[in-house]
């Protein structure tokens, strides 16, 4: 293609260098003209070099590892799909920065029906130069005033107006309505805006002006508006190109290639910001002294070098510099200049477009030049036209090289042989400059011959596209509001938590006095924590958590050694008959003894039985009611130790000496107490939740004795069963409760523990789906399945190290295919539910430690809490949230949380050991 007129690509490398003014000694004027025009010629090789270098710069920027050399910026726009065609509603669009120092307001109606268009209303306002170079506040106030003037003039009703903001400068977007200006371009330089969120600045200005209630829903670059204004057609319109005051393009990139997004599926629109491309190697040879002079005198020297060769703001200025140069060398205007010709900005894009048009007669060119105070000679018109053509042709070719780079990028990432794509175009240079447009198209064809490209001029100058994005953003914002409303009842205030603490204190006091209370405050007959002198081998059973375990615990001088084995309790056994359950337990013990070579030995046994029991002594516990999914018949109201002994008898094969029955909270406290004598409270947050602590014996009604202490099993899972938690209970808690095997019971536990949190989340997700906020409103069968959402998923999903894509993978494994937006919502739901659980738990702990402090009449209490339970241990934030709540609500207590490592079976053995030691002492 080595000489394509009128663009005039020349063979060979590089244009001749640009001699300095004054040194130039052309033999005659035509040689000078030739030399001058020659500088604007770009060879095909040079264009290919620019194309390749720009592609390279794009790919580097996508990886987020761009070198320090200023290149393109590849800014995510948070627009993830091209229009569906079903977007609808009325939107206000405010355009700033696309077309010079002007601002446009539009009223766009989207019908939601493909092909059906309503003409938008629009009005243009000129921004005064002192505002363009003034303060940010002046600029945004001006914008707000124009907006209101437009709305007044069109009698728009002031009702929930949704606005799309087309802001055409390089911005770091972090959402559809969050966008920080990186730097002004194109002659704007308002102070105090760079580094600020322009959406917020506009919102503030709208609020300052006051008259209308407008919600700024989305912010969009003009390239994106242009791409989105394209009617869905035969081929995908996945590129938006602007050549107006400035120049830029956007395109749909594979999301997985955009490193900053951490997204592995779908496509997302990236604004290339190619105006800032300035690779010396590629651009150096085509930059002329005129480009350098223009850059030097601009508001942003050194920046936007590529844009300054293409954008409409600069074409007139380049022409002016060339004409002045030729006049100074007596080649034009008889060697005369005028003050206008020597003044920056006197030749505008419109002048260039008109003069360059071959159909414009010499008379018109003369008239334009005369307006500039010049006295053109007869031959000048033709030369001026050639200068305009040279400057514009180069601009169109450079623009084509950049567009070709995007097409190569698309082709490479789509892995298509022939890429079929539509490019939406916009901007005054393209709209009013037929020659520019045709050179652009021709050159793209040559540089990207493997692509089948169609060019589609944008509708309404992109305003419609901005409205499209606004429609999507408005839908997302509505979803966010629904999400916030849904989660609001889970977000507890300090006052609410303090009220829980107070109610808990009152219920504790009543329970201890044997008055009606949802807290049973059960005496455990454990009066002391271990003193370290306990010795011997013990058996322990641990029933009621995730695992059923049999343990051999050796308490010796050097410490405690444990051998244990986990056995399954099938659901049919847990919910079958009591006889079946206890027979199964004894079978497991026999198996364990067999394996450990313990047959025939009658070791003392401690039984961790993690259900509410009314104890009459250390080895007698009447099961009050089952909790946590157990429901074996014939057990409630029975002594559990008796049931175990009966099962042993039935088997006749073992001899067991059941010494103590212990709740898991007590086992945990004892186990931690062996290491830390300050441990006077036990806490479980696992399948269920509960706490125990050392109470003054004198406060415990129904147990003889006035001095010393006794460990109280609070059974706080039942807190609120008298209706006192009603205010905090959400409709989701009610649903979870209603379908549980013990409706109305364990209301506090059902808001906190592992057995229920996943179910609460599942019910919220179902609700959000029914509102259309999740899964595009499609109810999935999987999500209807009870217990499908395990609490361990909350722990996994909320893990800080997990990327959103991994969250999605977890949910996809569950059979819930979702988008990134969905994944984010699920994450927020999990966070709200687990946070409330941890805070309620913290309020409970605060009530207990404060009670211990007051019991002892201390100003300050230092105490340790032994904790166990899968949720507490595995969840990434649960423990710290509990601790933070306790610090807040019980500031006079220094509470240390100790995680129990060996489960409460060890504690049961220690209770047994203490009992044996005391029994021996009594014997002696
Ligand atoms: C364990 C105890 O350490 O913690 C169990 O040994 C107890 O008896 C459990 O019930 C609580 O946690 P989870 O998560 O297993 O219910
Ligand atoms: C400038 C801006 C860019 C805009 C382009 C076209 O290059 O930085 O954001 O898209 O002009 O208006
Ligand atoms: C349930 C039981 C309680 C136990 C707790 C933790 O709330 O009723 O006894 O301590 O779960 O496992």
From TrEMBL:
InterPro entries linked to this entry: ATPase_NBD, Hexokinase, Hexokinase_BS, Hexokinase_C, Hexokinase_N
Cited SUPFAM superfamilies: Actin-like ATPase domain
GO molecular function: ATP binding; D-glucose binding; fructokinase activity; glucokinase activity; mannokinase activity
Region Disordered: start-end pairs: 1-26
GO cellular component, one term: cytosol
Broadest EC class assigned to this enzyme: transferase
Nucleotide-binding as UniProt keyword: yes
Cell cycle as UniProt keyword: no
EC number: 2.7.1.1
Reaction catalysed by this enzyme: a D-hexose + ATP = a D-hexose 6-phosphate + ADP + H(+); D-glucose + ATP = D-glucose 6-phosphate + ADP + H(+); D-fructose + ATP = D-fructose 6-phosphate + ADP + H(+)
Alphabetized UniProt keyword annotations: Allosteric enzyme, ATP-binding, Glycolysis, Kinase, Nucleotide-binding, Repeat, Transferase
Record-annotated Hexokinase N-terminal domain positions: 33-230, 483-674
GO biological process: glucose metabolic process; glycolytic process; intracellular glucose homeostasis
Alphabetical list of Pfam families matching this protein: Hexokinase_1, Hexokinase_2
UniProt pathway: Carbohydrate metabolism; hexose metabolism; Carbohydrate degradation; glycolysis; D-glyceraldehyde 3-phosphate and glycerone phosphate from D-glucose: step 1/4
Record-annotated Hexokinase C-terminal domain positions: 239-472, 680-914
Family listed: Belongs to the hexokinase family.
Function: Catalyzes the phosphorylation of hexose, such as D-glucose and D-fructose, to hexose 6-phosphate (D-glucose 6-phosphate and D-fructose 6-phosphate, respectively). Mediates the initial step of glycolysis by catalyzing phosphorylation of D-glucose to D-glucose 6-phosphate.
The protein's name in its UniProt record: Hexokinase-3
